[in-house]
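ok so for the tutorial part 2 we go from a plain amino acid sequence to predicted structure tokens. step 1 is just haveing the sequence, like this:
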Amino acid sequence: MTTSATRATTPQTHAARARPEDSRLSFRHEAIASFAFAGIVIHLFLRFVLMTSAQSYQLPLKAALVLAGIPLLYELAVRIWHGQFGSDLLAGISIATSILLGQYLAGTVIALMLAGGNALEAIATRRASAVLEALARRMPTVAHRERAGGAENVALEELRIGDSVVIYPHEVCPVDGVVVKGHGVMDESYLTGEPYRMSKTPGAEVLSGAINGDTALTIRSTRLPADSRYARIMRVMEVAQQQRPRLRRLGDRLGAYYTPVAVLVAILAWYFSGESIRFLAVLVIATPCPLILAIPVSIIASISLAARRGIVIRDPSVLESADTCQTMIFDKTGTLTYGEPQLTQQIVATGFSPKEILGLAGSLEQYSKHPLAEAILRAARSEGATLQEASEMAEQPGQGLRGAVNGRNVWVTSRARLLKQAPGEESKLPASAAGLECVIAIGGSYAATYQFRDEPRSESKSFIAHLLPKHVVTKVMLVSGDREAETNHLAQRVGVTKVYASKSPEEKVAIVREETARARTLFLGDGINDAPALLAATVGVAFGQHSDITAEAAGAVILDTSLAKVDEFLHIGRRMRRVALQSALGGMGLSIFGMGLAAAGYLPPVAGAVMQEIIDVLAILNALRAGFFFGALTDFD
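step 2 — the prediction. this is what the tokens look like for a chain of 637 residues:
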């Protein structure tokens, strides 16, 4: 009988579902580019180093054209059969023309550039499979199932609902469940978007994929691994991979117009003159090197510029599309906010000094691993509060933090715990507010309430305000897994009106896909829960290196978590498009002028090849400008 565990796949099996045709296409073009490159290098070595005869140094080029040119010409025939006319088509015709003219070096160079560009595109497409592999690597392959004699290691797929599973310190939780033994914290921010480590005591729910803290926990599994939160994210990622927007390259869009014009001029020149040499001469001067060379050069130069600015471009196509996105979609935690709680409000009871209370609380929190301890310590240091040694410290599960500081008994706890022990203090407490809070009692009496929020980045409001007037952005959205009150509070502070809160990764990707169907989208996120949305958007941008999964899913990774760097990325993309268009259109304009001369019989094939080389050099030199920029690349304060 088949058990319910076989109804779905575990996270590890999802990584095996990569589309093999993407890998084969990438490897084929990589091999073709390698053959062409090797032929050019050997040719140059034989010609200029060993100074062999023409027959000898042309041989590597002929071999390269056989190994590289024929597969490309086959792809050309397939494109023609399907009615596709882009820059690749004219490049293929040019390879055939160069072979007929004996211009083997030019033909091999065209083959190298054509195959190299296609290989880069196939590699970028293949990255989505790498995301699934990274997700699978992050999950444990075994779980520690509790038995009478102790914990035993079992394969993840052997777990059943109701099993007791031990999670050791700093391990990734293998399955959804409920804590039955132990007290600690878990980092669920990658999955939920919540910026805090969450306390875990018996009865608390845990999510697969969360990272355990410093203490061991025993949980009772409530779902099969195949039905867990992490596995569902994997399935959403698969769908996002299969439906990822395909960006049409700038060279293809220009080539779709240029190629028919060049071929038509060549045919008309042959027809009206009756000389086939004019057909060849026109195609030689029409070789689309400004498209094949200048645009990739400007992209590579821009990638270099971005790297110097702390921006890693993982998919070159995003540079062409970044500044054309009309909809900007933000995750909340870690993108528009700092991703960590900040002490934002100190409400101190009558008779107590705010600085004194902060010093006492900070002195005690030095010894705590509570999620809010670091926020209190930061505030104490920034305000110059005195931190002292604490004694008799105790942090019993569910009771808060107790200790003695300079002879005074200090208790940092929750509102509910304080009122349970001292109900008479209720009138002294302020009204509850959104966000997190803790209360502080000194000598058994209420002394202060501390309120915490994940504060917005200092540049968030000005960055969002400048998007509409300075870029083509017409809609700004905030889509978060965080609570509605917290998300709306942030949206009001930074100036976003379109808000979606408490959204799961599945819901996020559905929203992004719906918006992408209307207009080009840019999604900015930083957690595993953002990875499917990063894939679904036209352009995905990730902050930092907190997760290799998020970085794999993104087209660009901002190493320095700063919105100013996002603006630099947009401007680098805008500048790349401008320089690439200048190079390509300028080169094409000169080529069209040369085509007219060749069609009229004033430019023979050999002279046309020389003129084309001059045009190529000019286009490439202009394209290199994309990699040099001095000054600011941002336009907001």
